Here is the input.
Amino acid sequence: MQKIGILGAGAWGTALAMAAHRAGRDVVLQAFEAEVADSINSNHINAQFLPGISLDPAIRATTSIAEAVTADAVILVAPAQFMRSVCEAAKPNWQTGTPAILCAKGIEQGSFKLLSEVVSEVLGPDVPIAVLSGPTFAIEVARELPTALTMACTDEELGQRLGTALSSLCFRPYYSPDVIGAQLGGAVKNVLAIACGIIEGRGMGDNARAALITRGLAEIARLGAVLQADEHTLMGLSGLGDLTLTCSALQSRNFSLGVALGKGQTLDAILHERTAVTEGVFTAAAVVELARRHQVDMPICQAVDAILNLNADLQSIIDGLLRRPLNIE
Here is the structure.
């Protein structure tokens, strides 16, 4: 596990390149934008996606997917809705047995599949898959602040090797066998973070936000149960940990989008001002449809989907949630 390829040189992909380099790995970081690769190689900075952070000159960037996947393990950091097309581009050069480490958080629109299913479908069932997920802001990883997260893989020996290959004093991957739970927590928490942001933007108070986080976790757990996720995973770093972080800080793109919605801005206006992808916007409808297919009640996610995709009135949606019958917790 000496050479690590990374597909996607956004903020998170760049931060992961720094983490892998600190762990002693040789890193090749693939960028979809030529100017990003040039900036990293010439100036040792990703000015577009991670400004103000100096990169070690040993971190090399390329625009070639083929070059990046010629590695001992490949980290996939492209946004969830682009994961299929990125894997299709990588497939001709993907080496037999090379593990894919999934770092995007979402559910594919249209197919309503988890990203592990998408990757296996495109690259083939023989490609080993791991999921790296947890409470992680890219800027804090880049600044080498302490970070703990989950490395999920059904093959324990491989999962431990991958975790060890990326670990350092301040970057601590904990092994889990639960690939489904690690993905589910990361995907649904983005939708819930938008809801928490709306609460903040509307000035509804910390009590309401804490209640929403708690009831949102119950929604994740209900969906996780039917998808055979381990409930302990959802209480861990890739579940409760990620949910707590994303629902509490303006650094979160999903939370800050919700704040703007709560203050009366339109979704189109918010997205027009952003270059980075806000995953929860694209995952909301997929989560709701997945829940519907499995007959799982997820009223908070349904509310967010209605606001984002069905032009529902924000206050009416809030009032509807507050009027729901009281049930046994």
Strands lie at 3-7, 26-30, 45-46, 50-54, 60-62, 73-76, 100-102, 129-133, 147-153, 171-176. The longest helix spans residues 179-201. The CA atoms of residues 306 and 312 lie 5 Å apart.
